[in-house]
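Ticket #4471: structure output looks truncated?

Reporter: J.K.
Steps to reproduce: submitted the chain below (158 residues) through the standard prediction queue, then opened the result file.
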Amino acid sequence: MKKQPVVTIDGFDLKILQLVQVDNMMPQREIADRIGLSAPAVARRLQQLRESGVIRKDIAIVNETAVARPLTIIVHVTTENERLDLLDAMKDRFLQCRQVQQCYYVTGEMDFILIVNVKDMAEYNEMTRELFFEGGNVKSFRTCVSMENVKTNGPIPL
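Returned output as attached by the reporter:
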């Protein structure tokens, strides 16, 4: 794995990060005007923030309903065995599953929390068969279907 360069984040970087978390298509000139730097200085800082891994990705957030994938499901997964090789295999399975949008390995009563996007319950049922039954090492899972996604992809408070 490539080691990321160390970066010192100052007040200007924090202001830039606050703005691009909300709209990463905001023109650099507008960012510059809002925070009191030149556009080239903003460009250099953005490049450094990306190269250092502070900005991990620039992505588009798609409206689930517009692409006929309206269901968000939160799944609590409990493992049968916490042996490291088995946990790593589960993490890899979750990482490779296209319906899993987010995966958290957590402390507490369950071992994983998954945020899943599917078009319907039939797709979710098929996904559970593959991930949880055929994949193995799943003691139990609990499903919560989101009735409304009130806040998603919120910015990191800086």
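Triage note (M.O.): checked the attachment and the full token line is present. Strands lie at 71-79, 100-105, 112-118, 138-145.
Status: closed, working as intended.
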